[in-house]
């Protein structure tokens, strides 16, 4: 499965062999041996990059089904024999790594010392792709997800705030303005935003769309904390979730309407494929994240 999958993604024997640290002749002969045993050609070698033939697509679909069945079998066997041990690959984005992990992970590893943790950081799209490719087991994420086929367990919901620092032109007049008046006055103003591969960016864009605001995005970042700090010192606008609200001196945080809450979840590919370690972590996180 790995050799076929890598060749599809890389599109050439040279790139795929480099990716897997094997020689190109060995790689080519391995694929050829499968084709010979099946009596079909799996890859169209005249195309650059290489693509699957019709027979190859059929073979690959069955291969994925077999791989999925094997994964289900191993998960069931592991769950029966190892209730409180195992290996857990957890994905998270930088913001949730900073504001959520410390509330869960130390206590979880103390309760389940035999469960080994591998922590993988990335953006929302990257983490979702890793879930779908079975490269991570679960990941902290925020709704809405990019891929609607991914399942999740909701952990908590928090308010979203517009950051207005004392450097901002609206700061002194806020007490005399309604929310709608404030939002209508920030059209075309300078904004600091998360990069577009993050789920929170989608939520922030939904707020802007609701108020018919076209922001002048001057800086994009991967970190909510960076956006927050830059807004405090530059006078630009930005949005942050409630867990990122810190010092309230020389800054005002304007709460957004309830329909724009930040919903934090633990996402996973398929609940039927969850290992006992994953289930333990989800249940533990639900009860300990704000304790």
Automatic annotation (TrEMBL):
InterPro entries in the record: HTH-type_LysR_regulators, LysR_HTH_N, LysR_subst-bd, WH-like_DNA-bd_sf, WH_DNA-bd_sf
Pfam families per record: HTH_1, LysR_substrate
Source superkingdom: Bacteria
Start and end residues of each HTH lysR-type domain: 1-53
GO function term, MF aspect, one: DNA binding
GO cellular component terms listed in the entry, alphabetical order: cytosol
CDD domains linked to this entry: PBP2_LTTR_substrate
Keywords: DNA-binding, Transcription, Transcription regulation
Protein family according to the UniProt entry: Belongs to the LysR transcriptional regulatory family.
PANTHER family with a match to the protein in the record: HTH-TYPE TRANSCRIPTIONAL REGULATOR YBHD, NITROGEN ASSIMILATION TRANSCRIPTIONAL ACTIVATOR-RELATED
Protein name per the record: LysR family transcriptional regulator
Organism: Staphylococcus devriesei
């Amino acid at each position: 499965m790995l050799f076929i999958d890598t060749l599809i993604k890389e599109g050439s024997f040279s790139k795929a062999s480099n990716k897997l640290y094997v020689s190109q002749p060995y790689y080519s002969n391995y694929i050829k041996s499968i084709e010979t045993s099946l009596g079909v050609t799996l890859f169209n070698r005249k195309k650059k990059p290489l693509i699957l033939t019709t027979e190859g697509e059929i073979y690959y679909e069955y291969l994925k089904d077999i791989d999925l069945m094997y994964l289900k079998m191993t998960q069931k066997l592991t769950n029966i024999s190892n209730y409180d041990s195992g290996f857990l690959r957890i994905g998270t984005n930088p913001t949730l790594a900073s504001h959520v992990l410390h509330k869960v992970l130390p206590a979880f590893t103390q309760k389940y010392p035999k469960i080994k943790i591998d922590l993988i950081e990335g953006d929302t799209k990257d983490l979702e792709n890793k879930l779908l490719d079975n490269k991570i087991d679960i990941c902290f994420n925020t709704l809405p997800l990019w891929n609607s086929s991914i399942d999740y367990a909701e952990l908590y919901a928090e308010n979203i705030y517009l950051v207005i620092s004392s450097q901002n032109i609206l700061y002194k007049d806020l007490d005399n303005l309604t929310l709608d008046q404030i939002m209508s006055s920030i059209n075309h103003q300078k904004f600091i935003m998360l990069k577009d591969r993050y789920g929170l960016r989608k939520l922030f864009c939904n707020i802007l769309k609701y108020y018919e605001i076209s922001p002048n995005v001057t800086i994009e970042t991967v970190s909510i904390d960076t956006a927050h700090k830059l807004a405090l010192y530059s006078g630009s606008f930005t949005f942050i979730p409630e867990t990122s609200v810190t010092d309230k001196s020389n800054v005002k945080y304007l709460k957004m309407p309830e329909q724009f809450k930040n919903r934090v979840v633990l996402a996973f590919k398929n609940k039927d494929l969850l290992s006992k370690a994953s289930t333990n972590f989800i249940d533990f996180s639900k009860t300990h994240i704000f304790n």
